[in-house]
Design goal:
elongated
Length: 732
């Protein structure tokens, strides 16, 4: 032990006498720190986490590959190691002393960088600072061991410098330390999973951005730790005291051996893709951490209040301040300025009734329609259109839950997704007709994913409980029996009541699809949270609306689907020609739908819909009277049905409401705060309030004066990220 202590002390004294050691351990990283911090405006948000990870990785790589690798070769060529050979020690104390010295020299620099970031740039201290220091320590030891392997397998200084550069540069450029990983194509992102430095970048950023501890990065930490032990062991076995002791070229394969843990980890990540997913999530979080001030705009708060000339400060993905007036100088806020004179800021819009897997029309070749990819694209289309949250009320369960996890977690960029379903219905009830012409095995599987058909009260309760365990956000039941050419079996009211009671017991909102006044009556008496559709064919009694207002039952009239079905039956395609629809609708869908409606192939479908009793005047009157009775209103479009294209759905629904006589302010509140309340999410979305998520839609003009202004989108902000709308459909 005395030998170890003596060599560590000696190494430190020798290192501190060298100006190059002081420069490259302290001054060199600080130069990069200040250059990167100023260039990236680190004072405005999470850019400082990028700066810190870049500087730390550059320092750790230099400390290990240059500090251990080249210095050991220098000492061998200068015959310093030959002097140790005559003493009664093995190579072990020399190797351990090199690792420990590197750690002692480097760690003060880590603390210095964090201190400067906190006091000069306002970065909060990491929640998991001990984990950051421990992870960094493991990384220093791991790369120090790699450096010692390099020193062991080269025969000269020239060879060591060449080999060090061959390892250093790829790690520097492929790890995300110099170029953000979100710039890389998918194939190159896969290759980065084999690069040890990538795990340092991702690990450090995860700890700084997400408050992760060492446990969340345990596999990279273990790989680095194993690298340190394997590197020291191999260095011990092939250690050379004198430069005359040459080593065979094949010995360089030991370098591959020390990197084996990362080779294994890379193949594992290729299989699970968890590393790539985490990288995408971190990049998303970085984009959501900017600080900027949108000023000089009209602000529709969400609850009906309007600030005629105000400013909104966004910081770290949240609404940090709302100013009545221009607000303070952005420089005092360390914020970028976004001028918005003549524009209106709204909370992100919400559509509470969509079918994400519904194609909304026809493709010329339906065999090429991929529901999974289409659903991902549809969520991007909503975000493009300023609709930042949607609720699926009838989709394939496993697929929609998987997509919710992917998108809501940040791996893919799209509107936040909540899901109801599957549909509680009767045998032969609405929801079962979609699959009746499919092969039995396919039909049965889809029915299990799309519907629940309870046979008893106990089974109904168990099915609701099972969905609760699977993580659905709400329960949907079907009461409609249909009419005209579309007649269905109706769900037994006893079973429906059991579904409703269990949903309430499990704190799951209950959405009920209704078709006439009787359906609405049964749903309201069961204390449904929302009435979906109401009735398109008969008047809902005023007394029932009064009861809904008293109970706080939300009303979702879905006028868009009434208009769309009427247009489809009449062979009209005007809805496809809306500007936003043309921007977000897949060309093959828009063209295929135009062609299908013009052909004789859809004639029977159009005739069937024409016979279904749907009356826009009745639906509009029901909506207007619901408003007059004080019923809380919410916006749903029933997108996924014919001609209701995913994306700019709420905007057109609002236009139909205003045409029906609903004041624009009431309609806008239904699409923002009221919808958020229905989703039990009004503590974070639906209004422009301090502390809420920064989900914002900036439009040209005043939608309170002209509701079509909601389609004239200037900017979409989602969780603090200014969305590059043109790139939304290029995600991979």
């Amino acid at each position: 032990m005395k030998a170890y202590q003596a060599l560590i002390a000696l190494d430190l004294r020798l290192a501190l006498r060298q100006r190059s050691v002081i420069f490259f351990n302290y001054l060199f990283p600080l130069i990069f720190f200040f250059i990167f911090a100023q260039a990236m405006h680190a004072e405005r948000g999470a850019a400082m986490t990028i700066v810190i990870s870049m500087v730390l990785i550059i320092g750790i790589l230099g400390n290990g590959l240059f500090g251990a690798g080249i210095r050991a070769v220098q000492e061998r060529e200068a015959n310093i190691l030959r002097r140790y050979k005559v003493t009664p020690i093995s190579p072990a104390p020399l190797l351990v002393a090199s690792v420990v010295t590197g750690w002692i020299l480097y760690m003060p620099n880590v603390l210095l960088i964090f201190t400067l970031a906190h006091f000069l740039y306002g970065m909060p201290w990491p929640h998991s600072m001990p984990s950051v220091l421990l992870f960094t320590s493991i990384a220093v030891c791991g790369f120090r061991a790699i450096g010692l392997i390099l020193a062991s397998v080269v025969n000269s200084m020239q060879e060591s410098q060449l080999l060090v550069q061959l390892i250093y540069l790829p790690m520097l450029f492929l790890s995300g330390a110099t170029f953000p990983l979100n710039m890389f194509p998918p194939w190159l992102l896969t290759i980065t999973q084999f690069v040890p430095a990538t795990y340092m970048v991702v690990g450090i950023q995860g700890m700084l951005l997400r408050g992760e501890g060492l446990a969340a990065n345990i596999y990279p930490a273990l790989a680095l730790l194993l690298t340190a032990f394997v590197g020291l062991f191999i260095s011990y076995k092939i250690f050379r005291w004198e430069k005359e002791e040459k080593i065979r070229p094949s010995a360089k394969l030991w370098l591959a051996a020390v990197l084996t843990p990362f080779l294994v980890l890379g193949f594992w990540q290729m299989h699970t893709r968890t590393g790539i997913a985490k990288t995408k999530i971190l990049n998303r979080q970085l984009a959501r951490s900017e600080t900027f001030l949108i000023r000089g705009a009209r602000i529709f708060v969400g609850d009906g209040k309007v600030i005629e000339n105000g400013s909104v400060l966004v910081r770290g993905g949240k609404i940090a301040e709302v100013f009545d007036g221009a607000g303070p100088d952005p420089k005092t806020l360390n914020a970028e300025t976004v001028e918005a004179a003549g524009k209106t800021i709204l909370p992100g819009l919400i559509d509470v009734h969509i079918h994400l897997g519904g194609p909304a029309g026809f493709y010329s070749d339906m065999s090429k329609y991929d529901p999974e990819k289409a659903m991902q694209r549809n969520l991007a289309a909503y975000l493009y259109s300023g609709v930042t949250t949607v609720r699926s009320v009838g989709d394939v369960l496993d697929g929609i839950l998987k997509l919710r996890s992917t998108v809501n977690g940040g791996e893919l960029l799209g509107a936040d997704l909540e899901t109801c379903g599957p549909l509680f219905t009767a045998p032969g009830g609405h929801g079962t007709e979609y699959f009746k012409n499919l092969p039995a095995q396919v039909r049965d599987n889809l029915q299990r994913q799309f519907t629940r058909i309870p046979g008893s009260v106990d089974e109904a309760r168990q099915q609701v409980g099972g969905l609760k365990e699977q993580g659905v956000d709400c329960i949907k039941a079907i009461l409609e029996a249909g009419a005209g050419s579309r007649v269905f079996n109706r769900l037994d009211t006893g079973l429906f009541d059991a579904v409703a009671q269990q949903a309430h017991a499990d704190s799951l909102p209950l959405a009920v699809h209704t078709g006439d006044a009787r359906d609405v009556t049964d749903a309201v008496h069961a204390q449904a949270n929302s009435i979906e559709h109401g009735s398109f064919r008969e008047r809902i009694p005023d007394a029932l609306f009064a009861l809904m207002a008293q109970q706080g039952t939300f009303y979702d009239p879905t006028l868009s689907v009434v208009e769309a079905f009427k247009d489809f039956a009449a062979g009209k395609t005007d809805l496809l020609k809306r500007s936003l629809v043309q921007q977000v609708g897949p060309p093959e869908l828009l063209q295929g739908t135009e062609a299908a409606i013009a052909s004789a192939d859809t004639e029977s479908m159009r005739k069937s819909l024409a016979q279904y009793p749907m009356d826009m005047s009745i639906a509009s009157d029901n909506l207007k009277r619901a408003h007059q009775h004080g019923v809380p209103l919410v916006t749903g479009s029933d997108a996924g049905n014919y001609l209701v294209i995913h994306g700019p759905t709420v905007q057109h629904e609002l236009q139909l409401w205003v045409q029906a006589g609903i004041p624009p302010a009431v309609a806008l509140q239904a699409a923002t705060l009221n919808a958020a309340r229905l989703l039990k999410a009004d503590n974070r979305i639906g209004s422009i309030r301090v502390g809420n998520d920064a989900d914002l839609l900036v439009v040209d003009g005043d939608p309170l004066d002209d509701i079509t202004a909601t389609e004239r989108i200037s900017m979409v902000v989602f969780k603090g990220e200014r969305i590059s709308r043109s790139e939304l459909f290029d995600q991979r």
